[in-house]
Amino acid sequence: MNKLTYFTIGALVIAVITIGIIGYTVRQPVVNVQPVIELPLGAMPGNELSTEDFTVNGVRTWYLRADVNRSSTTTLCTIKLPTATSTIESFTINLTNGPQAGGSALSIDLGEGTAFGATTTVYNRVLLAATVPIALNASTTIGSSGTNGFIGGKHWLTAKMDYATSTLRGACVVRLTEID
Question: Does residue 42 sit within a domain?
Fold first, then answer.
């Protein structure tokens, strides 16, 4: 073979490779990436929210719950409040059963304190007879127990009784409105 044949074959190979590269790059599909727009939901999925607080139009409401302590102690339940000053909308203890039949009556206090288990300010007190289910409510209102309707941050709400029993069942539930 002569030089002209080598030159022609080389030129053809280069031309085929160039056409292949140009054809490959031109035929690449064009991918348009659309940004994902996330809009806030306008409704809640279902009828349950698994959160302790909920804010609507800048007003933050807390929903706290603790089961009744089943050990033999005078403290039924204790709930620590958030750090901000709050107003207690409701503080309820729901007992599904009372003391054992034939036992003496039980005095229950719903109150607030700065330490775990303390009730330095009592909001409500009830004398519970044997085997009587009860829902005892308390709230801070202007003038009640000197609170002026507010309770300080990091305080504790406690349900206590005058003697220890492990027969009571139920839960303490608190609803607070945060004050900024």
Answer: no
Give the torsion through C-alpha atoms of 98, 103, 107, 109, to 10 deg.
-40
In the chain, DSSP assigns E strands to: 53-56, 59-67, 75-80, 86-97, 106-113, 121-128, 134-138, 156-161, 169-178
107 in any annotated domain: yes
Percent of the chain at pLDDT > 90 equals 1
Two tokens, residue 135: 């829902």
Tokens of 7: 């030159």
pLDDT at residue 8 greater than cutoff 60: yes
Coil, helix or strand for 180?
coil
Amino acid, single-letter form, for residue 19 = I
Range of the domain at 72: 53-178
For residue 153, give the amino acid letter.
Answer: G
pLDDT tens sequence across 153-179: 778 888 888 877 667 788 888 888 887
pTM of the complete model: 0.62
